[in-house]
Amino acid sequence: MLGLTLLAACGGSSGGPGPTPVIEPPQIACPADVTVKNVSGSSQPVTFPDPIVTKGAAPIATNCNRASGSSFPLGTTPVNCIATDSQQRSTACSFNVTLTGFTLTVKRFGTFGDSLTEGEIGRPNYAPTLLDPPNAYPSKLQDALETGYPGQGLIVVNRGHSGDPVETTVETIKRYVPPDKPDVVLILSGFNNLTQTCAPGTSGTGLCRSGIDAVSVGVLDCIRKTREGSADVKYIFVSTLTPPGATGSNRIDANAIIQANNRIKQVASQQAVVLVDSHAAFAGHEAEYVNVDGLHLRPAGYQALADAFFVAIKATIPQNTLLTAPR
User: Fold this and answer.
1) What is the pLDDT of residues 266-282, one digit of tens each?
2) Domains and CATH numbers, the chain
3) Which one has a higher pLDDT value, 9 or 134?
4) Beta strand extents in the chain (DSSP E only)
5) Residue 262 has what pLDDT?
6) Which of 10, 163, 279, 297 lies 20 to 30 angstroms, CA to CA, from 287?
């Protein structure tokens, strides 16, 4: 009894310092797989929640091989994430990000018309013809289709020819639609029926009215010969004529173009084809889009023309969900 009392008096204890707490390794839980549908292009940014990390010795660093908000391609992409704590212990998880796009239900596009289809650049004072095929609207349309529907082998064939009146465009359609077998035909023609008959200020003359009549009849014949030429043609798009520039040696009377476009609209409605109102798309942008001769287009104008057709194509032609990434 005395020994126990002395031990207590000296402050003795039967216990000691407790063991160092054991910190468990980090654990990580990735978000669920992410699916993004209706992607209009070859890639798109995708956001997703951060992985949830528990336990581990702070501070803990978390990294994923593709960060939330980065761009993902069509198809399925694995995302791998790793959490590493201050004791250099790591754990990992993964999930998939899947993007599905569209496939267009057509493959071949045939474009018919005159110099504004072939891609002529306007030159002042009747200078020799200069073509710029990479900036022609069919080339720009090809770029838009490849971007919007990548890897699908879509083809745009340019059958435009500088100087052709609409009657010659009819003959070109008769010649090329049967062997080309396009799924879609795009028509923009009639300028050359008006350049010699409808100079500025002459829209009320009999000669100009005859030119406008020729445009109307010719566009109708273009549609009919397209249908006769190939049963493969599923869609026909007809464009209005673009407006003239403020000045230039090849200017057509602005009111004559409006009258011709009204007739083109009537034909398109009667024939149940798709109208592309390029004139409306150009309104207010003539200085930017129309070249120095007052008729032909600058690269920005050809791009705007391609954009007008592309918008109409997307709005008209069915698109199916693309379940796998294009090859």
Assistant:
1) 999 999 999 999 999 99
2) 23-99 (2.60.40), 106-318 (3.40.50.1110)
3) 134
4) 27-29, 34-36, 43-45, 52-54, 61-64, 71-73, 75-84, 90-99, 101-104, 108-113, 120-121, 130-131, 155-158, 184-188, 235-239, 274-276, 319-322
5) 98
6) 163
